[in-house]
Amino acid sequence: MLQMTVRPTPFLARSMLFRFFFFFFFFFVLSVARSSGGGEAKSERTLAIIKPDGLFGNHTDAVKKIILESGFRILKEKIVQLDQESAASFYAEHSARSFFHSLVQYMTSGPVLVMVLEKDDAVSSWRTLIGPTDASKAKITHPQSIRAMCGTDAEKNCVHGSDSPQSAQREISFFFDSMPSGVQAIEHDEL
Ligand code: RTP
Ligand code: MG
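C-alpha cells predicted for Nucleoside diphosphate kinase (191 residues):
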C-alpha cells in the first residue's frame, strides 16, 4: 500500500517563503502606485490679465472665447484699475530693467481684467496660448497666439500669464486675497 508521509516544512524554508511573498507584494504595490501617478497632468490655477490695450481695443470677448474653447474654467474675474505703486509691486521682478517705468505707465493707463483660470497644467497651457512676449514677433512666429491677435509690440502685448506655479499663487493672492489699496475694483464677479 502506498504510504505518504507529510513532513513539516522546515522553519528556514517557511521563513524564506514568507520573505519572498512579502517583497513581491511590496514591489507590486510600488509599481502600481508609480504607473497610476507618474506623468499625469494635474489641475492647476494661473493668473491671466487682459491688459489696458486689450480692454481698450475691445478684445475681451474674443480672448475669453479662446480661453473657454481651450478648456479653461474661469474661476474668478474682476476689472481693476492699478495705481503706480501696485503696478510696480506686481512687476517688482523687473524693477531694475530699462523698460520698467514704461511698463508701469502702460499697466496704469487704463483698467485691466484679471482672471483666475483653472485647467490641467494651466500655467504652461496659458503661456503657450498667449505666445511670445514681443507681439510684433509673435505675429510672424506664432500667428495663432493671442498676443499675435491683439498685441502690438514688446510692451503692448495685450495679455499677461503667470510664468510658474509659484508666481501664479503669488499673483492670484495679490489680486484676490490681499488686494492692495492701490488696486481699485471697477467690476467684480466671483464666478
Ligand atoms: P507678462 O509677465 O506680462 O505675462 O509678460 P512676459 O512674462 O511675457 O514678459 P516679461 O519679461 O515678464 O515682461 C513683463 C512685461 O513687460 C513689458 N516689456 N516691455 N519694452 C520692452 O522691451 C519690454 N519687455 C517687456 C511687456 O508688457 C511684458 O509683458
Ligand atoms: Mg512675466
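DSSP finds nine helices and five strands in the chain.
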